Amino acid sequence: MIKIKKIAVLTSGGDAPGMNAAIRAVVRTGIYNGIEVYGVNMGYSGLLEGNIKKMELSSVADIIHRGGTILGTARSDEFETKAGQQKAKNILKDIGIEGLVVIGGDGSFRGLLELAKLGIKVIGIPATIDNDMGYTDFTIGFMTAAETVADAISKLRDTSSAHGRANVVEVMGRDCGDIALYSGLAGGAETIFVPEVNVDYKDFIEKAMQGKRRGKRHHIIVVAEGSANTFELCKMLEEETGIETRVTVLGHVQRGGTPTVFDRIWASRMGYVAVNSLMVGDSGFALGIRCNELVKTEIEKAVNIKKIFNKEILEIAEILSI
Ligand code: ATP
User: Fold this and answer.
1) CA 19–ligand 1 middle distance (angstroms)
2) CA of 28 to the centre of ligand 1 (A)
3) Which of 45, 126, 232, 278 has the highest local Cβ count within 10 Å?
4) Which of 96, 127, 131, 141 is nearest to 262 (CA)?
5) What is the pLDDT of residue 115?
């Protein structure tokens, strides 16, 4: 056990439900162990402005169930420069902060790696709704976003069945289709479009026609934003099948909301392990989930592990929605 006196925590990149639970765990675990914990407001951008405050037990009261992040988040171009990273290191050193926990996505981890190279002890907690980090099975916030979308699909199903319409639902996911994949299976979608798999328009129309022939009164198509043009899909479906179709673009509603139990539990466990890791002198690790175990992967390795798309889930969704 090494004596570490001051650590800091920040959230970076896109906000994700569960970030607050992770902040709470870092602050409370630190204070429990006699460590001063500082909160950096507004990500790396706030770090470069010295926007840092000491956190107390009460600073994180009543936040475990809240979406967003009480520390705020931002993106910073300055931090991507060597000069910016050196400035950030100096600001941390001036306050006497020896360890930094960053809660964020892939880009945030790349930034964290640069700080590690400058001698700051660092630990990363994966938090992004996209679930686009290859070294971990899940990122904090993803399950909540998938739950939000599945809930929206269930609601759209009601009205879809009532009118005998099709509904095309556009969800987040420019490069990673996991939100569409998981919410699509959970919501019983007939077709799921993801950026990882080429769109087969012929199959799509044929499946809709089959449904129409056997009298299906609802038809849900979930489209990850990076996979196809949602409005063109809608037009094509109406023209080729004669099924009246509506488009719903869910947008930023997917980022908010109270985190699911899954996200709160993993955020709490990771926040706890992050501080304990710094206390035993571990640094440069990204925390993750592999087969329901909490694992530590070197950040340098973690950011280079390619995310593998789970084709089996897509096949299951297709078979179950015939
Ligand atoms: P999300 O997946 O939600 O978008 P993210 O962490 O990947 O989250 P980014 O915008 O990619 O979000 O990164 C957040 C911040 O991390 C950037 O604004 C920048 O300051 C820093 N950052 C990103 N990439 C690098 C890099 N290669 N080197 C140094 N800093 C970086």
Assistant:
1) 16
2) 26
3) 126
4) 141
5) 97
